[in-house]
Amino acid sequence: MRRVYLDHAATTPMDPAVAEVYIRHATGVFGNASSLHQWGAAARNALEEAREQVAALIGAHPREIIFTSGGTESDNMAIRGTAYQLRERGRHIITSAIEHHAVLHTCQDLEREGFAVTYLPVDREGFVDPGDVKKAIRPDTILITIMMANNEVGTIEPAGEIAALARAAGIIFHTDAVQAVGKIPVDVERLGVDLLSISAHKLHGPKGVGALYIRQGVHIAPILFGGEHERRLRPGTQNVPGAAAFAAASSMAARRLAEDARVQASLRDRLLDGIVSAIPDTAVTGRRYDRLPNHASVLIAGVDGSALLAGLDMAGIAASAGSACTAGAVEPSHVLAAMGLLREGDFAALRLTLGRSTTVEDIDYVLDVLPGLVDRLRRQSRP
Ligand SMILES: Cc1ncc(COP(=O)(O)O)c(C=O)c1O
Q1: Which residues, including other chains, have CB under 8 Å from residue 102's CB and lie 6 or more apart?
Q2: Contact (CB, 8 A) for 350 and 367
Q3: pLDDT tens-digit readout, 201-224
Q4: 100 CA distance to ligand 1 centroid (A)?
Q5: Domain that includes residue 302, residue range
Q6: Catalytic residue among 184, 221, 301, 325
Q7: Nearest to 17 by CA among 244, 258, 202
Q8: Distance CA 37, CA 279 (A)
Q9: Same-domain status, 309 and 354
């Protein structure tokens, strides 16, 4: 049976060349980057070289990159670190209702600690209105955190415009760019962001590695305590093989960005057009064209999400119902709810996300399987 992996927003396979860098460092450059002997020096050099390559992907200075364990930790560090650093100045944070749980749950926890959080609404395509951001700013606002691209519906938020508003008001701006980096151009100078989260496993790098960009001159409080690693902001022996592989994946992403985006956007369009024209009662979620190039998401009426995913899985197709983090339970999505798209009755929110190895044959296989599967499930669910 054909096997088609279309869940790259959940995670990507490590590129073989990246895996080779990982293994080479795990076995050959195993020293502790803090050690004073030559093994330590080799690890330190590899780490600093990795920092340069990751920085280059987003137009940052290497000093502005802190290695973390991934997107979740970067989001936690950015938000909680800013809140604690600036709590004497103010205790109000602005975010959106469609953020990843790494952002939303951190904000909710800060509310329990006495911070106030405004969760901005989005429109039916999942866009935050910069006008709403402006209106929500208060004298005690210390942080605005709005994602760069949404994981469930592929919407690309106006992060640069919001960053400019934040800067004009003297407020720190963080963006969760986990789904954006490696898919669309991300340049911290052009965007004017203060803090930006990245995760290696979304761009064909290893799992459990990420970075937080912290603009030079921006100070955040540490949320972990220990040694002096990563400018005392992220103590703990650094993951040198992880960082080196992340760097290799970053360089590859930078090199291939335009071509990958062009190829994947054309396959995505073939997929979305094929689904919408072959299956009645379907609707694209998010914006039809101006969205992440690798991201397709649709609502399919009259079928149950888990049954659809199971049917696709049986046919060898990996897809997702919204976010992988809650997909185990296929809970109603907070993103679709905020977009006003949760309806009565059964419907599946299907997310198909493409990667570098996706082919036109993969897409056509999905287009062969999906209409029949939906039809069967619809007939089964009718009384
Ligand atoms: C938008 C977004 N932010 C954060 C994360 C968490 O990243 P990680 O898995 O590296 O912790 C994800 C992962 O799905 C994501 O899609």
Answers
A1: 71, 72, 75, 76, 176
A2: no
A3: 999 999 999 999 999 999 999 999
A4: 7
A5: 4-12+257-381
A6: 325
A7: 244
A8: 64
A9: yes
Residue 325 bears catalytic tag:
yes
Pick the more confident residue, 322 or 369.
369
SS3 295: strand
pLDDT tens-place string over residues 178-198? 999 999 999 999 999 999 999
**Which CATH number does the domain housing residue 294 bear?**
3.90.1150.10
Cβ atoms of 314 and 1 closer than 8 Å: no
Indicate the residue among 235, 252, 269 that finishes a domain.
252
Task: Give the Å distance between the CA of 72 and the centre of ligand 1.
Answer: 6
Residues 123 and 109 in one domain: yes
Distance CA 120, CA 97 (A): 6
Helix ranges, the chain (H): 16-28, 38-57, 71-85, 101-112, 130-136, 159-168, 188-191, 240-278, 305-314, 324-327, 334-338, 360-381
Q: Which two three-digit tokens encode residue 145?
A: 């955190």
Tell me the CA–centroid distance for residue 29 and ligand 1, in Å: 28
Tally of domains within the chain: 2
Residues 211, 304 share a domain: no
Q: How far is 76 from 344, CA to CA, in rounded Å?
A: 35
**Directed axis angle between helix 101-112 and helix 71-85, to 10°?**
30
The best mutation among 7, 54, 72, 204 to test binding of ligand 1, ranked by most ligand atoms within 8 Å of the C-beta, falls on 72
